[in-house]
Amino acid sequence: MNNSRPIDVLEKARGKKVIVRLKNGSDITGALQAFDLHLNIWLEGAEESRNGTSTKLGSVLVRGDTIILISPE
Amino acid sequence: MNNSRPIDVLEKARGKKVIVRLKNGSDITGALQAFDLHLNIWLEGAEESRNGTSTKLGSVLVRGDTIILISPE
Amino acid sequence: MNNSRPIDVLEKARGKKVIVRLKNGSDITGALQAFDLHLNIWLEGAEESRNGTSTKLGSVLVRGDTIILISPE
Amino acid sequence: MNNSRPIDVLEKARGKKVIVRLKNGSDITGALQAFDLHLNIWLEGAEESRNGTSTKLGSVLVRGDTIILISPE
Amino acid sequence: MNNSRPIDVLEKARGKKVIVRLKNGSDITGALQAFDLHLNIWLEGAEESRNGTSTKLGSVLVRGDTIILISPE
Amino acid sequence: MNNSRPIDVLEKARGKKVIVRLKNGSDITGALQAFDLHLNIWLEGAEESRNGTSTKLGSVLVRGDTIILISPE
Amino acid sequence: MNNSRPIDVLEKARGKKVIVRLKNGSDITGALQAFDLHLNIWLEGAEESRNGTSTKLGSVLVRGDTIILISPE
Questions:
Q1: Do the beta carbons of residue G54 and residue G47 sit within 8 Å?
Q2: CA-to-CA distance for B9 and A34, rounded, in angstroms?
Q3: How is chain G split into domains, by residue range?
Q4: CA-based nearest distance F55→chain D, Å
Q5: What is the pLDDT of residues G24-43, one digit of tens each?
Q6: Given this model, what pLDDT does residue B3 score?
Q7: C9–E61: do the CB atoms touch at under 8 Å?
Q8: What is the pLDDT of residues D17-49, one digit of tens each?
Q9: Do D68 and B24 touch (CB under 8 A)?
Q10: pTM of the model
Q11: Among residues E39, E43, E37, E55, which one has the least CA distance to residue E16?
């Protein structure tokens, strides 16, 4: 366990649905296609929810520095 | 799929219309001409919408660190 | 003691429960699975509490630059 | 088109009038004299407008990290 | 004196009580166990006070970029 | 003109009066003594004005990352 | 004069009283013991004033990225 890295939790989530919480207060869900060390992520079938309102985004690139946390479902 | 990068979603969107959501709450749409690893982007035929108001921008360079997400239409 | 590093307090907390305070005002608790030098962390069995409301997150990757402090229980 | 860079839109605008939108909500217009990779820019004949009020600035160096976007007229 | 560094004030405070003022407005006190060049710090017997309320934290790692100042008692 | 850099506008202003607009909303005027690539600047005979109130500062070092723009008079 | 650096104004102020203005709106005064290129500074006999209230701090390390300006008295 001592050699595992935080980003390994994302390796296991490739192709699966994740929830992404942003600094601006919205949540984005989608299937995780790719990510890098800055936590830039590419989601497919993405949907944004904020203050109880949902918006479909489809393919989306989310900039890593706007992300608080990423949680696989 | 394991070798894909987040930015690949933009490679496929070159010359096509994208929606860019900014940290200040506005959305910019336009045809994606170029981008770099900082997510600085160059759009043509760009239009900004904020609080229900639209402004034509034409050619525009958007600084990457002001961007939350980029979504191809 | 002169050679100890701040991150050593996390080495001793691997696999144990920690409290993570975020810049947005919420607290996240969970078992510390992994961390890196940016303080990106991976928690298991995570739960977020904010303004008296609790949300289960399960596995979660928290971005280091959103963290104020990490305290082992 | 694949080799163009975002900053190329500025190369074409040298000596011409551009609009610069700042993070603090003001717009600055002026003739683009020089720029660098951080998007620091030097404008001549610059004028700032904010909340409907205009101020003449003349020569001005604008720090790149305060800029949201730059659009050639 | 010309060769002293700001961080030397912390070298002399190792093992002693310090007050740490955070950007979010709270103060944390505790015995300084370790620190690094980013001003990440590890405190023991830490206690947080904010708006007149105190919370015991025990061992804590405080991220350097959330710190305004550190003052040995 | 193609080889000029944004900072060249400051080279020409050495020893002369400049106006510096800060991110916190205040303006500082003074004679430009020195500057570096981060736009840290040293002013002499500096004066700060904010919300219509003026304060004499004399010699002052202004940190580059707090600056929006610098304009020679 | 062309070779002087902004930080030279601090070299001349070593051991003397300086005023430090912080991004959070408070001012700290004290005798400048040491500083580095990030503008981290070590003050002795420091005192913080905010909204008309003064607090004695004694020895203090102020993190450079919280500083707006430093002015020797």
A1: yes
A2: 9
A3: 8-72
A4: 22
A5: 999 999 999 999 999 999 99
A6: 73
A7: yes
A8: 999 999 999 999 999 999 999 999 999 999 999
A9: yes
A10: 0.94
A11: E43
Residues E41-53: tens digit of each pLDDT: 999 999 999 989 9
Chain E neighbors of C72, CB-CB under 8 A: 58-59
3-state secondary structure of B59: strand
D45 in Cβ contact with D54 (< 8 Å):
no
Q: Measured between beta carbons, which residues in chain E are less than 8 angstroms from residue C23?
A: 24, 66
Judge: F33–G9 Cβ closer than 8 Å, yes or no. Answer: yes
Q: Inform me whether the pLDDT recorded for F70 exceeds 60.
A: yes
- Show Cβ contacts of residue B3 under 8 Å, excluding neighbours closer than 6 positions: none
Cβ neighbours of G46 (radius 10 Å): 24
C4, C7, C71 ranked by CB distance to E60: nearest: C71
Quick one: chain D helix, strand, coil %, rounded to 5?
10, 55, 35
What's the token pair of residue B32? 């994606």
CATH number of F8-72: 2.30.30.100
Q: How far is E20 from chain G (nearest CA, A)?
A: 10
Sequence-distant (6+) residues with CB within 8 A of B7 are A36, A40, A42, A61, B35, B37
Of E14, E22, E61, the CB nearest to C10: E61
Q: Do G14 and E2 touch (CB under 8 A)?
A: yes
Buried b (16+ CB within 10 A) or exposed e, E12-31: ebbeeebbbbbbeebbbbbe
Chain A: partners with 3+ C-beta pairs within 8 Å: B, C
Closest by Cβ to D63, choosing from F8, F68, F72: F68
pLDDT at A1 over 80: no
Contact: A62, B69; criterion CB under 8 Å = yes
CA E72, CA E11: separation in Å to the nearest integer? 10
Q: Which two tokens stand for residue F25?
A: 């909303």
* E8-51+58-66 maps to CATH 2.30.30.100: yes
Report yes or no: C58 at the A interface, CB cutoff 8 Å.
Answer: yes
What tokens were used for G36? 């580095």
Q: For residue C59, give both structure tokens.
A: 């596995």
Q: Which of G6, G23, G64 sits opposite F24 (nearest CB)?
A: G23
